[in-house]
Amino acid sequence: MNKKFIEAISNIDEEKSKMIYHRLIRDGVDPNLITNDMNIALQKVARLYEEGQYYIADLIIAGDLITSLMQEMRRDCDMFTFTTRDERIVVGTVYDDIHEVGKNIFVSMLRSEGLNVIDIGADVSTRRFIQAVRKHKPAILGISGILTTVIDNIKEVIHSIEMEGLRKNMKIILGGNIADENFCRYVKADGYSKDAIEGVRICIDWLEAGN
Ligand code: B12
User: Fold this and answer.
1) What spacing in Å lies between the alpha carbon of 209 and ligand 1's midpoint?
2) What is the C-alpha to C-alpha distance for residues 101 and 43, in angstroms, rounded to an integer?
3) Residue pLDDT, tens place only, 107-142
4) How far is the CA of 98 from the centre of ligand 1 (A)?
5) I want to staple 54 with a disulfide (CB 3.0 to 4.6 A). Which of 47, 48, 182, 195 is the partner?
6) Contacts 24+ apart (CB under 8 A), 147-154
7) What is the domain-level CATH number for residue 65?
8) pTM value?
9) Among residues 80, 106, 135, which one ends one of the domains?
């Protein structure tokens, strides 16, 4: 854990965050550790927001800062572009929900395991989910949802995928703040996790079991 890096991000100090990030990359620090620090920093930002010390604008800037650090990390680290498995995983945040930092962390962690991920972004409509599944024929579809108001949107996406006959040979994993056992059963997903690391482990288990 790099406290200075976490502090720079949670203080939303872009210049310092980037400077420390480049030093970490130069020193060969494991990108998963860097990603984990970004996760911790964002939790701190979220806490400051909930305590009334940060405003929505601060959240947006912090979210953009982390997204841009992750984009740089993808360019800097071969391990994020080197895939070791053929199966594809499509990941997106459901429509009416623009939260994407957690989803981006999950995507980066999957890629760092050599998995072949197609990130279809945030606020993704049912139609776009269907198009992506039809086009990429993924072994796994990951759906992220943070707002409690999008539970029925996720249910609709999964139901529509099933109606289109695209559910066969594909597992669906839910993630984000709202993912839990009841929600998973309600929307008829195969699994869920509130934690990117556990989510990656579930995906790898599914792929290794050949599902
Ligand atoms: C940052 C943030 C924002 C940013 C988002 C920036 C961005 N580009 O993503 C901005 C400012 C845009 C925003 C907007 C809004 N937000 Co907001 N936001 C947050 C905040 C502070 C942090 C969310 C976050 O990024 N967490 C950090 C990440 C790392 O955690 P995570 O998303 O859970 O992801 C982890 C896991 O869930 C997992 N994961 C994520 N996706 C997936 C997918 C799969 C498949 C798997 C397996 C795992 C996985 O991996 C991650 C790492 O472990 C939370 C408060 C909080 N404490 O969570 C509120 C919060 C989520 N927001 C909230 C609200 C209400 C809103 C707004 C409606 C506010 C408004 N009035 O306009 C809008 C929503 C607009 C919309 N239509 O989506 C509420 C939601 C309440 C609720 N019950 O639904 C919260 C809880 C704040 C609060 N306490 O009121 N928000």
Assistant:
1) 32
2) 11
3) 878 887 788 999 999 999 999 999 999 999 999 999
4) 8
5) 48
6) 147/96, 147/97, 147/99, 147/177, 147/178, 148/178, 149/96, 150/94, 150/95, 150/96, 150/97, 150/178, 151/178, 151/183, 151/186, 151/187, 153/94, 153/95, 153/96, 153/97, 153/126, 154/94, 154/187, 154/189
7) 1.10.1240.10
8) 0.87
9) 80
Atom of ligand 1 nearest to the CA of 179: 37
- For residue 65 the two structure tokens come to 């800062």
Specify whether 62 is located in the same domain as 160.
Answer: no
Residues with C-beta less than 6 Å from any ligand 1 atom: 39, 42, 46, 49-50, 56, 59-60, 63, 96-103, 105-106, 142, 144, 146-149, 173-177, 193-196, 199
Q: Which of 62, 80, 98 is the last residue of a domain?
A: 80
- How many CA atoms within 13 Å lie on the side-chain side of 122? 16
Domain residues for the domain of 138 are 88-208
